[in-house]
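As a warm-up, study this chain.
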Amino acid sequence: SASDDQMRHRIERNEVTVDTLRRRDFVRELISNGRLIAARRSTLSFPGTGTIVAVHKENGGYAERGAVIARLDTSEYAVRLRKSQLALDKSRLEFYDVLVGLGYPVGDTVGVPAEVLRLARIRSGYADAAVSLQSARSDYERCWLRAPFSGKVADVRQRAYENAKGEFCTLLDDSRLNVRFTVLESEYGLLRCGQEVVVVPFADQRKEVKGRIVAINPCVDEHGQVQVDAEVVN
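Now compare it with the structure written out below.
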């Protein structure tokens, strides 16, 4: 009857899923804001003084290691180098005269005792002239500002025909980038060098670049945070 149907209890089945517990690692994600800087950065200055006569690399230009970025006027340094070379040639003749005066054959330095050679170089002025020539050659080479490593030139501060003074430019090697960020002190124990990180730039959050932690500062700042450095390929 209808009343019997209303009294009849409906049987419902509740399905459950069973999983076996196992001891395994789980992924813990740390998210932090940081900033990108070039892995290598150097501020370049002319070792010597003088007038800049040529700038070979402008802002944004790429310079291979050893490439000339700018050059000073070499005329004054070239004269010094030539005078030093002539002084060395003159003192060399006086050096041989000293040896001849001591009874040794002309031009023979093989059979002369080392101490006699040393004293002869000092008396003739040959030793001083050799040092002066080396110094003059070094000053001459300093007229060329060369890139110590391959990178991009930035912040060129002086132009041609200006006197070289202070910092000339900055060289950036951005083939690899350093990522500096901070984590909480409580998260310090979760990090180690060589650990993988994923960097997402604000400019394009669809792009992900993987890198690895290269340094962890063990000091905790006043905000209770630890500084971490990672490196990624540009």
